[in-house]
Design brief:
- It is a single chain.
- The chain has 2 domains: 120 residues, 3-Layer(aba) Sandwich (Rossmann fold); 225 residues, Dihydrodipicolinate Reductase, domain 2, CATH 3.30.360.
- The protein starts with a strand and ends with a strand.
- Helix 6 packs across helix 13.
- It is α/β, with parallel strands linked by helices and 388 residues long.
- A hairpin with a 2-residue loop joins strand 13 and strand 14.
- The protein is globular and about 60 Å long.
Length: 388
């Protein structure tokens, strides 16, 4: 079996590729990236005879498809704005696929994946991905569902990479139509910073105000519930970043900077948010934070045998303080995101996903299998059941 790690020179996808080196039985693992220097640096870092590098740029569709045709599965670590292009290439090449973001561009290629007899899972990292598995775990154990609240804290610098800078701007874009909640049978669009809720994240992260974000779990959980003959009264997905990050994003929103209106500086036209992003990418203030890592908090309420229950699921991982090798500082974040995608890649490559086409995580994977695989990598899911 052969896997192409698209965007493999990025800080998150290289961690997913490391996981393939450490845990998979792929015979060939190729770093595919438009940045040759960074890609070859990752090959050297991985130091495994199965790993090689190829220049791949999904904006050159014909060339990218030609390369992908030589692989069984494409593990797609590219940015949100490239996922439409990357998924088109994967589908045309006739490969299985999985990516990190799952913001919806993938579904237009559902029929093509089905025609090719292939599976593509959009959005399988920490959130979406692991969160979908945690929500499904609780849903499967309840007869009826009242509320599903999915929350996370992503503790990382605001601009440690171009893709993360893009994610920040995207998720709080005031014009974004996909920022929705599911309430009383309908999807309702909400603005940035809607419905604040204080969420107690597992240590060492603490309690933070969280707001509705435009992640795919809102719609995929609703779809899974419908397939199970259940319907929640409320599904909400929230998130937060380090407090300083949130303070900055709130100010950018309040002052209209997130709209990215055009301004002129010394005769040059530039988007105001593009200018802010460039500043954050070039100076330490955008590259560092006080606490690194990831924290998930899933709260599902419903009934079992007439008894009202609450399932609380959280996750923990090794500390970022250098006490555990490989989890130092930013890697505590990037490994949390990259490792689930690598696990999904391996399961898909083995033909263990029964559905073809573009398949949501809830339909694709068994939560308990994902949890077991995460535990092998020192990522632990904690489950608490409360009687209400």
């Amino acid at each position: 079996m052969k896997v192409l790690c698209l965007g493999g020179a990025g800080k998150i996808c290289r961690e997913a590729t490391l996981d393939l080196v450490q845990f998979s039985d792929f015979e060939e693992i190729t770093i595919g990236d438009h940045d040759e220097n960074a890609g070859r640096e990752v090959v050297k870092w991985l130091n495994d005879p199965r790993v090689d590098f190829k220049i791949v740029d999904v904006r050159d569709r014909a060339a990218a498809v030609g390369i992908m045709k030589g692989y069984d599965v494409v593990m797609d670590g590219t940015t949100i704005t490239l996922n439409g292009l990357s998924t088109a290439c994967i589908a045309e090449a006739g490969c299985h696929g999985v990516n990190l973001n799952g913001f919806g561009e993938e579904y237009q290629y559902d029929q093509l994946f089905k025609q090719k007899g292939r599976t593509h899972v959009p959005g399988f990292g920490m959130t979406p991905g692991t969160t979908d598995m945690m929500a499904r775990y609780a849903i499967d154990r309840l007869d009826t569902i009242d509320t599903v609240r999915i929350s996370h804290g992503a503790f990382r610098p605001i601009a440690f990479s171009a893709s993360i800078t893009e994610t920040t701007s995207y998720e709080y874009d005031p014009r974004l139509p996909s920022r929705v909640v599911y309430e009383n049978g309908k999807f309702i669009q909400v603005p940035p910073f809607a419905r604040p809720l204080d969420v107690e994240l597992p240590g060492p992260y603490g309690t933070h105000p969280e707001y509705i974000i435009p992640h795919s779990e809102t719609k995929t959980v609703a779809a899974y519930l419908a397939e199970q003959g259940k319907q929640a009264r409320l599904i909400e997905v929230r998130g937060t970043w380090p407090p300083k990050n949130m303070q900055l994003v709130r100010a950018l929103y309040d002052w209209g900077i997130l709209r990215n209106d055009k301004i002129r500086i010394a005769g040059t036209e530039i988007g105001i948010m593009d200018a802010v992003s460039a500043y954050l990418m070039q100076y330490p203030v955008g590259q560092e934070t006080e606490l690194y890592g990831y924290a998930l908090h899933i709260d599902v309420t419903g009934t079992k045998g007439g008894q009202k229950l609450q399932y609380l699921l959280t996750h923990t991982h090794p500390a970022s303080d250098g006490s555990v090798e490989g989890w130092e500082k930013l890697r505590a974040y990037t490994r949390c995101v990259g490792i689930p995608m690598a696990i999904a890649t391996q399961i898909i490559a083995k033909g263990q996903v029964k559905y073809k086409g573009v398949v949501i995580p809830e339909f694709a994977f068994n939560p308990e299998e994902i949890f077991r695989e995460l535990e092998k990598r020192q990522i632990f899911i904690h489950i608490k059941i409360n009687h209400l």
